[in-house]
Amino acid sequence: MKLRSLRVENQPELMIIPLIDIIFFLLVFFMMSTLYMVEQHTIPVNLPQAATVQQDKPSSINVTVLENGSIMFNQEEIPLALLSKRVNLEIGKKSDTVFILRGDKQVAYGQIVSVLDSLKQAGAHRVSVAVEKAR
Predict the structure, then answer these.
(1) pTM score
(2) Can you point out the beta strands (E) in 4-131?
(3) 27, 40, 70, 94: least CB-packed within 10 angstroms?
(4) Mean pLDDT throughout 34-49?
Protein backbone atom coordinates (compact mmCIF):
# COMPACT_ATOMS: atom_id res chain seq x y z
CA MET A 1 0.00 0.00 0.00
CA LYS A 2 1.31 3.39 -1.01
CA LEU A 3 0.92 6.25 1.44
CA ARG A 4 0.49 9.77 0.20
CA SER A 5 2.81 12.35 1.54
CA LEU A 6 1.34 15.14 3.57
CA ARG A 7 3.05 17.84 1.49
CA VAL A 8 1.06 19.59 -1.18
CA GLU A 9 2.07 18.29 -4.55
CA ASN A 10 0.96 21.39 -6.48
CA GLN A 11 3.41 24.21 -6.15
CA PRO A 12 1.99 27.75 -6.22
CA GLU A 13 2.40 29.44 -9.60
CA LEU A 14 3.24 33.05 -10.28
CA MET A 15 0.74 34.48 -12.75
CA ILE A 16 2.77 36.85 -14.92
CA ILE A 17 0.03 37.99 -17.36
CA PRO A 18 -1.96 40.07 -14.83
CA LEU A 19 1.31 41.58 -13.59
CA ILE A 20 2.20 42.69 -17.13
CA ASP A 21 -1.27 44.22 -17.53
CA ILE A 22 -0.84 46.25 -14.37
CA ILE A 23 2.61 47.47 -15.44
CA PHE A 24 1.29 48.62 -18.83
CA PHE A 25 -1.64 50.34 -17.17
CA LEU A 26 0.74 52.27 -14.87
CA LEU A 27 2.96 53.18 -17.81
CA VAL A 28 0.03 54.60 -19.79
CA PHE A 29 -1.25 56.43 -16.71
CA PHE A 30 2.07 58.19 -16.09
CA MET A 31 2.53 59.02 -19.77
CA MET A 32 -0.90 60.62 -19.97
CA SER A 33 -0.50 62.50 -16.70
CA THR A 34 2.80 64.09 -17.78
CA LEU A 35 1.16 65.48 -20.92
CA TYR A 36 -1.05 67.72 -18.80
CA MET A 37 1.83 69.07 -16.70
CA VAL A 38 3.31 71.15 -19.53
CA GLU A 39 1.85 74.64 -19.95
CA GLN A 40 2.39 76.81 -22.98
CA HIS A 41 2.10 80.53 -22.45
CA THR A 42 1.56 81.78 -25.99
CA ILE A 43 -0.97 83.98 -27.66
CA PRO A 44 -3.39 82.03 -29.88
CA VAL A 45 -2.60 82.73 -33.53
CA ASN A 46 -3.90 81.05 -36.68
CA LEU A 47 -0.52 79.84 -38.07
CA PRO A 48 0.05 78.88 -41.71
CA GLN A 49 0.94 75.27 -42.53
CA ALA A 50 4.25 73.84 -43.81
CA ALA A 51 5.35 70.33 -44.77
CA THR A 52 8.69 70.52 -42.93
CA VAL A 53 8.31 71.48 -39.29
CA GLN A 54 10.98 71.44 -36.63
CA GLN A 55 10.59 72.42 -33.00
CA ASP A 56 13.37 74.27 -31.20
CA LYS A 57 13.04 74.84 -27.48
CA PRO A 58 16.26 76.25 -26.00
CA SER A 59 15.68 79.66 -24.40
CA SER A 60 13.28 81.30 -26.79
CA ILE A 61 11.27 84.50 -27.07
CA ASN A 62 8.07 84.70 -29.09
CA VAL A 63 7.61 87.71 -31.37
CA THR A 64 4.03 87.54 -32.62
CA VAL A 65 2.36 89.63 -35.31
CA LEU A 66 -1.39 89.49 -34.74
CA GLU A 67 -4.08 89.64 -37.41
CA ASN A 68 -4.73 93.34 -36.68
CA GLY A 69 -1.02 94.14 -37.22
CA SER A 70 0.02 94.69 -33.60
CA ILE A 71 3.33 93.19 -32.45
CA MET A 72 3.61 91.16 -29.25
CA PHE A 73 6.99 90.54 -27.60
CA ASN A 74 6.21 87.43 -25.52
CA GLN A 75 3.01 88.63 -23.79
CA GLU A 76 3.63 92.38 -24.08
CA GLU A 77 2.45 94.60 -26.93
CA ILE A 78 5.29 96.69 -28.36
CA PRO A 79 5.54 99.15 -31.27
CA LEU A 80 7.79 98.28 -34.21
CA ALA A 81 10.09 101.24 -33.44
CA LEU A 82 10.94 99.85 -29.98
CA LEU A 83 11.32 96.23 -31.08
CA SER A 84 15.03 96.50 -31.93
CA LYS A 85 15.84 98.09 -28.54
CA ARG A 86 13.99 95.33 -26.71
CA VAL A 87 15.80 92.66 -28.77
CA ASN A 88 19.15 94.29 -27.91
CA LEU A 89 18.29 94.07 -24.21
CA GLU A 90 17.45 90.38 -24.48
CA ILE A 91 20.60 89.60 -26.46
CA GLY A 92 22.62 91.46 -23.81
CA LYS A 93 21.19 89.13 -21.15
CA LYS A 94 21.76 85.93 -23.12
CA SER A 95 23.49 85.96 -26.49
CA ASP A 96 22.20 82.59 -27.76
CA THR A 97 18.53 83.49 -27.41
CA VAL A 98 16.26 82.14 -30.14
CA PHE A 99 13.58 84.50 -31.41
CA ILE A 100 10.49 82.74 -32.77
CA LEU A 101 8.59 84.90 -35.25
CA ARG A 102 4.92 83.95 -35.24
CA GLY A 103 2.74 85.72 -37.76
CA ASP A 104 -0.92 85.21 -38.51
CA LYS A 105 -1.45 84.07 -42.09
CA GLN A 106 -3.84 87.00 -42.68
CA VAL A 107 -1.08 89.57 -41.97
CA ALA A 108 0.52 91.29 -44.96
CA TYR A 109 3.84 89.79 -46.03
CA GLY A 110 5.52 93.20 -45.87
CA GLN A 111 4.79 93.60 -42.19
CA ILE A 112 6.33 90.20 -41.37
CA VAL A 113 9.41 91.16 -43.38
CA SER A 114 9.71 94.49 -41.53
CA VAL A 115 9.56 92.69 -38.16
CA LEU A 116 12.15 90.17 -39.36
CA ASP A 117 14.34 93.03 -40.59
CA SER A 118 14.10 94.75 -37.18
CA LEU A 119 15.14 91.53 -35.47
CA LYS A 120 18.14 91.09 -37.75
CA GLN A 121 19.24 94.74 -37.43
CA ALA A 122 19.12 94.43 -33.65
CA GLY A 123 21.60 91.57 -33.80
CA ALA A 124 19.34 88.52 -33.53
CA HIS A 125 21.26 85.73 -35.26
CA ARG A 126 18.92 82.89 -34.32
CA VAL A 127 15.46 83.63 -35.71
CA SER A 128 12.88 80.91 -36.46
CA VAL A 129 9.57 81.32 -38.26
CA ALA A 130 6.72 79.38 -36.64
CA VAL A 131 4.37 77.40 -38.88
CA GLU A 132 1.92 74.53 -38.47
CA LYS A 133 2.56 71.15 -40.05
CA ALA A 134 0.50 70.56 -43.22
CA ARG A 135 -1.92 67.67 -43.01
Answers:
(1) 0.57
(2) 49-50, 60-65, 71-73, 76-78, 98-103, 127-129
(3) 40
(4) 75
